[in-house]
Amino acid sequence: MNVTLVEINIKPERVDEFLAVFRANHEGALTEPGNLRFDVLQDPEVNTRFYIYEAYKDDAAVLAHKKTPHYLACVEKLEALMSEPRKKRSFIGLLPEV
Questions:
Q1: Exposure pattern of 22-51 as b/e (b: 16+ CB <10 Å)?
Q2: Are 79 and 17 in contact (CB under 8 A)?
Q3: What is the C-alpha to C-alpha distance for residues 38 and 26, in angstroms, rounded to an integer?
Q4: pLDDT at 98 over 90
Q5: Can you tell me whether residue 95 is helix, strand or coil?
Q6: 3 state DSSP class of 83
Q7: Per-position DSSP letters for 24-77, written without gaps between them
Q8: Contact 25/92 with Cβ under 8 angstroms?
Q9: Are 29 and 54 in contact (CB under 8 A)?
């Protein structure tokens, strides 16, 4: 299992717009055959900081996600909303076993 944790920091005045933009990516990701989980989390102490927890069956599923229209549209729109570049960490998911 391929797991990615993404930190996204948004300009304070653009949070609502971010949520609208990211909702389309979230909903699209949930329909992908290789997607196991796609959570959008908000930091309770910094309301402009979001974490995306993505779990995919394998590397091929991640690559397929990055070619979808919903992902490409989201990434394009995110640039104007972010206060700094995204931060990503990749992990090997061990449990649950897929």
A1: beebbebbeebebbbebebeeeeeeebebe
A2: no
A3: 7
A4: no
A5: coil
A6: coil
A7: HHHHHHHTSTTEEEEEEEE-SS-TTEEEEEEEESSHHHHHHHTTSHHHHHHHHH
A8: no
A9: yes
How remote is the C-alpha of 82 from its chain's centroid?
A: 13
What are the pLDDT digits (tens) for 9-54?
Answer: 999 999 999 999 999 999 999 999 999 999 999 999 999 999 999 9
CA distance 83 to 63: 26
| Rounded distance between C-alpha atoms, residue 73 and residue 78, angstroms | 9
Q: Show Cβ contacts of residue 16 under 8 Å, excluding neighbours closer than 6 positions.
A: none
What letter would DSSP give residue 84? S
- In single-letter form, the type of residue at position 84 comes to E
